[in-house]
Amino acid sequence: MNETDNTEDENPSSDNSSEEERRKAAFRDLGTEVSESRRRQRSTFFKFSTEQKGNFDSFKVESGGQWSESEADRRIREFLIRLAGDRDLIHDPDPVELARKNDLLLLFGPEEEKLFAKLAVRFPSETLERWAELLGGGDSSNSFGPRSRAERQDEKAVAASIKKAFRRRTLTFLIVVAVAVLGVFFFRQLANEGIVNDSNQALRFASQLNDFESAGINTDFGPPILEPELTTELNLLVALQEGEGPEEERVRQTVSGGLLTVKPNEIYVTIFGYNGTGQVALFGPEGWLEEGCIRASVTDNRFRPFDVVVFDSTGDSCPDRILGRDVSATCLGEQMLMIPLYIPQGEIKHSEGGTGWAEMIRIGYEMEAQGWETLAVRGTITVDSQQSQVEIPVFSGEAGEEIIIDFDDSNPATCILSNR
Predict the structure, then answer these.
(1) How far is CA 416 from CA 181, 339, 402, 405, in A?
(2) Beta bridge partners of 312
(3) What does the mean pLDDT of the chain come to?
(4) Directed axis angle between helix 125-135 and helix 69-84, to 10°?
(5) What is the pLDDT of residues 70-89, one digit of tens each?
(6) What backbone phi and psi angles, to 5 degrees, belong to 236?
(7) Are 282 and 267 in contact (CB under 8 A)?
């Protein structure tokens, strides 16, 4: 009887022991064998509110360069503690272990991931790789349980966005640094050499004109006195044949003399100030004005015009391609012509944008001949940088008065001022 009783007493103990062993083995297989305190912590994990917005109200992520590994770990710990809210934590100096021991990755939602991504752009490469793998469901996160394929893909997308944001922030930072360095060199160069200002090459009227105009005083400036530095000849032949193909292949350096009403170097040109505006004066050979088409323009050094005028002596002497503001003669003689041209003073804004000074007067005697797309003799008046004190001479006169200009000593030119 005793043996029977003993046998019966031992069997239940053995059964209980084996059952306990099976339970523990099952826990080990499921990865859920934890301490009693950890089990109690997990049992209350989702009893806390999932609302985390208030925990991050004062959490700021400053822009800047890459953190050190210790500084990155400190900021991650701060983030995780805020993420946990009022939950009891098992503290650990390693932020990865802190997240593992407290199951904090379960609290990462879309908003938390976006905020964490802002932190991640300043992580050193090893820290970034470690957390990207952890959030992406890789081997380092197996302690949180296996994840589905969809979960792994979503988390890999988050990790990829973190890396992309990091690269973008790094690239932006490098660009800003490069621009700052170039800016320093640029302004240092300006400080050493000064800002380039070509306004001293601008065409200016005689200073006394500005003085009298600003005071509202009418004065007699006397007859026109030619300024040699502002005098030139129409010495450039421009001849472009009609036809197919590129223009450079249709340009001709010489043409038959019978085609030209005037030849290069036969017309002299200068400029004056009269009646409150600029005046272009031209003197040519006999008969040059019978069917004359003159175009004049004032431009900056990039050939952007401020004013373009056209004088047509007969009304149909100009080809259709010649465009500009139609003007009448200010002064007209048998061999001399004077036409108005607005010459702005100082720095002027262009209608298409940008600014400039009046630096060139371009004049052309335009002709029309069968078989030629363009046929003209042209010239340009400019102020050399070494002649910055040159001023446009100003003269006075009344309508009907004869004006005399000495283009050459042997043959003074005359014209009669118009009453217009």
Answers:
(1) 63, 12, 5, 12
(2) 293
(3) 78
(4) 30
(5) 888 988 888 888 888 878 78
(6) -105, 120
(7) yes
Structural contact between residues 309 and 340, judged by C-beta atoms closer than 8 angstroms:
yes
Token pair of 235 as six digits: 């010495």
Q: SS3 for 294?
A: strand
- Asked whether the beta carbons of 253 and 238 are under 8 A apart, the reply is no
**CA–CA gap between residue 65 and residue 43 (Å, rounded):** 41
Distance, CA of 366 to CA of 373 (rounded, Å): 11
Distances (CA, A) of 169 to 67, 87, 175, 309, 354: 13, 34, 10, 56, 34
pLDDT at 380: 95
Of 376, 374, 378, whose CA–CA distance to 250 is shortest? 374
Q: What single-letter amino acid sits at 263?
A: K
Please answer whether residues 262 and 300 qualify as being in contact, where contact means their C-beta atoms are separated by less than 8 angstroms. no
d(CA 269, CA 276): 20
For residues 212 and 151, give the distance between their C-alpha atoms in angstroms, rounded to a whole number: 85
| Bridge pairing between strands 305-312 and 293-299 | antiparallel
